[in-house]
Amino acid sequence: MSVSIQDPLLPFLPLLYIAWADGVLEETEINFINKKINENKTIKPETKDMVCKWLNPQNPPSARVLAYWKNYIKQNADLLNPSEKSDLFSIGAQLAKKEDTEDWVNDETKESLHLIEDYLGIVSREALRSVYENDPVTSTYLPTENLSEKAYSKPLKALLQHGYPDIKSRVQSILDPHKEAIESYDDDLKTRKEKVLKWCKELANAGLGNLAYPPAYGGSGSMPKYAAVFEEVSKYDLSLTIKFGVHFGLFGGSVESLGTKIHHDKYLKDIGTMALPGCFAMTEMHHGSNVKALQTTAIYQPDDKTFIINTPSQYDRKTYIGNAGMHAQMATVFAQLIVNEEEHGIHAFLVPIRDSKGNTLDNITIGDNGHKMGLNGVDNGTLHFNSVKIPKENLLNKFGDVDEDGKYNSPISSSSKRFFTMLGTLVGGRLCVPIAGQSAAKKALNMAVYFALERKQFGPPGKEEQSVMDYPTHQKKLMPLIANVFAYDFAHDFLLNDYSNNKEADSQQVEALAAGLKALSTWNTTETIQICRESCGGKGYLSEMYFDLLKADTDIFTTFEGDNTVLLQLTAKSRLTYFKKQFGKMDWWDTLKYISSIASTNLSELNPLVTRDTSEDHLLSDDFQIDAFTYREEFSLRTLAMRLNKKIKNGMDSYDAFLDVQVHLIDMASAYIDRVVLERFIVTIDEQKDDSVKEVLTSLKNLYALHLIEKNKGWYLEHDYISGSKSLAINKLVAKLCKELKEESQQLVDAFDIPRHMTKTALKFY
Amino acid sequence: MSVSIQDPLLPFLPLLYIAWADGVLEETEINFINKKINENKTIKPETKDMVCKWLNPQNPPSARVLAYWKNYIKQNADLLNPSEKSDLFSIGAQLAKKEDTEDWVNDETKESLHLIEDYLGIVSREALRSVYENDPVTSTYLPTENLSEKAYSKPLKALLQHGYPDIKSRVQSILDPHKEAIESYDDDLKTRKEKVLKWCKELANAGLGNLAYPPAYGGSGSMPKYAAVFEEVSKYDLSLTIKFGVHFGLFGGSVESLGTKIHHDKYLKDIGTMALPGCFAMTEMHHGSNVKALQTTAIYQPDDKTFIINTPSQYDRKTYIGNAGMHAQMATVFAQLIVNEEEHGIHAFLVPIRDSKGNTLDNITIGDNGHKMGLNGVDNGTLHFNSVKIPKENLLNKFGDVDEDGKYNSPISSSSKRFFTMLGTLVGGRLCVPIAGQSAAKKALNMAVYFALERKQFGPPGKEEQSVMDYPTHQKKLMPLIANVFAYDFAHDFLLNDYSNNKEADSQQVEALAAGLKALSTWNTTETIQICRESCGGKGYLSEMYFDLLKADTDIFTTFEGDNTVLLQLTAKSRLTYFKKQFGKMDWWDTLKYISSIASTNLSELNPLVTRDTSEDHLLSDDFQIDAFTYREEFSLRTLAMRLNKKIKNGMDSYDAFLDVQVHLIDMASAYIDRVVLERFIVTIDEQKDDSVKEVLTSLKNLYALHLIEKNKGWYLEHDYISGSKSLAINKLVAKLCKELKEESQQLVDAFDIPRHMTKTALKFY
């Protein structure tokens, strides 16, 4: 049986703890307490019995129970003001409040408790102080025997904070006070959206919205800092995350990246404080993934130097636009620029859509996207422009402009290159969405692991039931997901810094990585939350366990900021183009032939001894794992090039050829991303100074790599990269790693730093 | 570009269709129509322009456009009363209503249209009648060119109705009128639960609740009929399905199966009409899967021949009990029966919990499980019994009773066997849950396929965009899921009939199948809905596409009526026991040795020629597919037996040995279920008389089988069952089958018979 406390007893826990903390009580002391408790008419008879039972010297609490009480008091007292923390009654009242047993809280009880304190001769403030002292054995809240931190706990947690613990605790300090409102299901949609706006403004007021903007406009010029806010907010409310991201990241980001000084000076400060709420109007009813084919037009009017923004038909309305439904006053609108009847492709324009009082402006029709699967705290809407006139300077003109003489000019002559350059500046969103997904996955794993450690079911005949975490099937479900989350975390951090430090450099590789990593990482999020929910059984279905909103809110992550399947094709094409570019003016055919040949050279001859090597040392080595990942990547690249080559040679046009090999593009892109993620995991381990951290990360890296090889074993076996016996050895080793890492499961999810009140829910079986 | 109609034009569609249906208009006729339209002050100038443009003889609609108009009118007119169906104005008004352009609907327009009808010399009732005539080319509602049914359409649809088209249409006729209420998101939780109860009672009043009960009690003694209702209701609202299932299936089913004549006579009629709403109180806070360890007690009181039902601690409260939160008046409570201080294990008792006015009875505390991920139309609650007294006859005494002398007796002497016999009678729930899941999966596929056919995105340079269904990645996502749904459908039907026809026979095999099939089928549902949602992109995220509730409501299907992972272990253990039983008194060790030996004999020597045979004929043959499935099953069984054998031989106790091989138990059970599903698919094809049905089902069977072999290719390659080249050939063939079956995708989902108004939503891009 687990250690646990019956609800009605909770308010008396501080009293009981203090009573037993210093050893066995005198009979007179027990009698006094019993008397005071029994005299109190507001306490129910059953409760009195329970309290008295726990004061029986024949029945003292075990050391484990005492440690548990102490810890429980500490955790709950952490929610009190310092002045209340050392008062028996206040803490008891807090515990009562947490468990809905507040009938106990009254003046009579207050008096009883104070009398008891005095009688026991304990200066209560002093005695209770010991509860709050740092004690490694009891400082984490854990219901089962395992109450200790591990050597790696602190540095590992710090590692996942990516250098910004301060930013994270600022976010926590802003959102913690709202936790009840955040977790309420009572709001209607409109009220909820207003609340989300309010919280968003609080973050802005604390200077947490504009961190990515240049210091001259109130920011700190740091994308990683902005991402740290994004990650932390995601632990609380994903509608807030997305509203925050739409306004500061997409809208503000478009002004910063696509606009020039005139726009920065005029808008960035107000965007940073949210004085000017905005939205990002790209997607249309009939054009989502195919941005190039958007139908909204922006026709230049030389007479008065304006643009007319127009929605040609109902199918061309902007849709799913976050922040448009209720709050945005300005939209970055993507439209086909037409100057003197000539089309210049997609450009972005700032279009005011509401006045500062929130009234919709003339010739603009705003709709609401209605009830959604999730993110119902975000006001997604539709926008219809009926020949809306905007001044010339509202064109975000960094990559294309209309001059004073009404002539179009651009620093980038190729319209296709211009298009991709513009979209490329918006890669920040693709970096941030999966980071929000990671937070959701971490929260899900935190809940599932704490649940699995606490929940007991079945057991050997005649013995105690077992923790479900002891079941191999359960370990096999959860442990690889924990390893994945670490793997993607390091990859995101790497990419974020790379992007942040090399904004002006050739960004094609960053974009390709961002697109592919976003796809694999968000799919991992969806899978993780699903498996975690199932692993918590019926309790996982209750909204209090968060899986409800975690699932519903993140479900769209695989779609927005680029549909995952489309993104992986982008990644694959970009990989092919990368080779093409490296060799100047080669055409597609030559490039494909070239890739086939170099990849063949790189693909080492398979050594039958290695193919059959089933030793643990070999399987756990970086060399084997990297070689396996690289082999899959290069082989896919080569066969893809060969397939395309053959089709084009046979007269197929390149569009159809690429369509035909679509599934292989996805495979190749996935193999590429997998390899980068593993490499980054290894580099991260090398960078660690603490041996305990290195050790646990190495186990996680091994599990990440071998589990993925196991998942792709069909491919490896098809291509004779591993023998059947080696494949079986890998299956076995994965199970072994899962079992070993299970012992670290609590400490690993503790490193995710999920707010404690959430964890507590996982442990509450009413 | 797809054929489509601008919203404001919709009300004029009947007019336009009639104007063009008989050929080119005379100039005078056009002028008259233009004049009448222009004179009408209630029609907006833009709309007038559009209408006139469509009447221009230089710009006649193409045959395809005309067919589309006709079809569109027909579909919408189907919602009208017969008398309104042949009136231009009424149909136009209906179209206007569907598209929210109702400002058009007024007397002035009515007059204009009637004048136009008269002038054109068309007797409108006659002309419109042609719209409703059966025309194979236009009789299905389809937005793209493909407007035809296929030869197999009608018989295939009939096949999936499993012989009960009448029951299904009765359900539809009851629920269709509620469709707006069902699909509303405006209700608070309490209101919603009341509505669901109301619909449930409507089904009961129509005689659709008690179909499984014996005719003597108002039913028809047919489990398959009951399942048909269940399946059909699931297309509308899964909360209703579950509430219906809890009351009629679990509560009523427990009275029928565990009770005797006294209970049947007293309760079954009232249960059938829902005059006595009930619930099924098995799960407790601390015991879900481990039913045997339930803590609630039922202690016999010889003095007054009663039982005292008691909840020993807060952790032993009944929880997640559907119908308990608000509506049930009686509960079937599972509790440890104690007679004269002797425990006799779990038995079921009828405990009144509310009076007929809905007031909770004394000594019973009912809680609410709060907000859930889904199924929020079901009132799940907790039950706490504080020494509740019930008469002796409230024990459901079919398998265990207390006689007049206060002595326990049972027709089954082994308490373990008694326990499993009691649970076995409740297998109906495990048959029905996955059937509800299948309906959800069908609805999801219907939406995804219609969306994919209509949605266009990207395309060859300078050409029209392509339907996303033309993308190989999309085909690879959706088509295997369609094949799976057919496969599971036939398996469920088979099992349902088997169960229904052999209730009294040894039911172990049915139970093992039901448990395992429930697991694989509900996981398939979860996966199907997820992939369908993603395949519909942003639109899939809007609640109007149903994925929202489909996902949230079905998510618990993998947990309730048995956690899937636990169920598969049951299936596996039952398979092992099956062999044990066949040979009398063999002990576990001997059995395991025996299984190892017979399985080895059965496993044919692998023929290298077959292992490498990549011919299409071979891969598409039943023989190869069945052999592949059987090989995996028997090999898993043998290695499992060998593993267990070895562990037990080495002194491990059998509990630990089974724990160690948990993952292998799951694999073995899955392989067993997969083989049965494939066999049943083949039998179903053999039973068909219509060649076109045979043909399309054979393609689906091939896709089901080969896709599953592809999914398990790692295993097959590890065990040298197929060569690498054969595996690659299978991958290729799966892609080919997906591409071929894509051509049937619309007709295949049409066979699912999803209410048309749902399908329409998939085609609406605002």
Structural description of this entry:
The structure is a homodimer. Chain A has about 775 residues and is of the alpha+beta class. Chain A has 32 helices and eleven strands. The first copy, chain A, folds into three domains: about 5-130, no CATH class; about 280-420, Butyryl-CoA Dehydrogenase, subunit A, domain 2, CATH 2.40.110.10; about 430-755, Butyryl-CoA Dehydrogenase, subunit A, domain 3 (Up-down Bundle). In chain A, the strands form three sheets. In chain A, strands 1, 2, 3, 5, 6 and 9 form a six-stranded mixed β-sheet that branches. The first copy, chain A, has a three-stranded antiparallel β-sheet with strand order 4-8-7, with no helix packed on it. In chain A, helix 17 packs across helix 27 and helix 21 packs across helix 27 (about 660-685). Mean pLDDT of chain A is about 90; it is low at about 135-145. The interface between A and B is large, with 81 and 81 residues. Chains A, B: It is an enzyme of class 1 (oxidoreductase). Chains A, B: It holds the Pfam family ACOX_C_alpha1. Chains A, B: One of its GO terms (biological process) is fatty acid beta-oxidation using acyl-CoA oxidase.
CATH-derived topology of the largest domain in chain A: Butyryl-CoA Dehydrogenase, subunit A, domain 3
Largest interface comes to: A-B, 81 and 81 residues
Helix content of chain A: 55-70%
How many discrete structural domains of chain A?
A: 3
Morphology call of chain A: flat
Question: Total number of β-strand segments of chain A?
Answer: 11
**What is the residue-mean pLDDT of chain A, rounded to a whole number?**
89
Continuous helix count of chain A: 32
Low-confidence stretches of chain A: 134-147
Whole-angstrom Rg of chain A: 30 Å
Going by CATH, what is the homologous superfamily of the largest domain in chain A? Butyryl-CoA Dehydrogenase, subunit A, domain 3
Q: What share of residues are in beta strands of chain A?
A: 5-15%
Main sheet overview of chain A = 6 strands, mixed
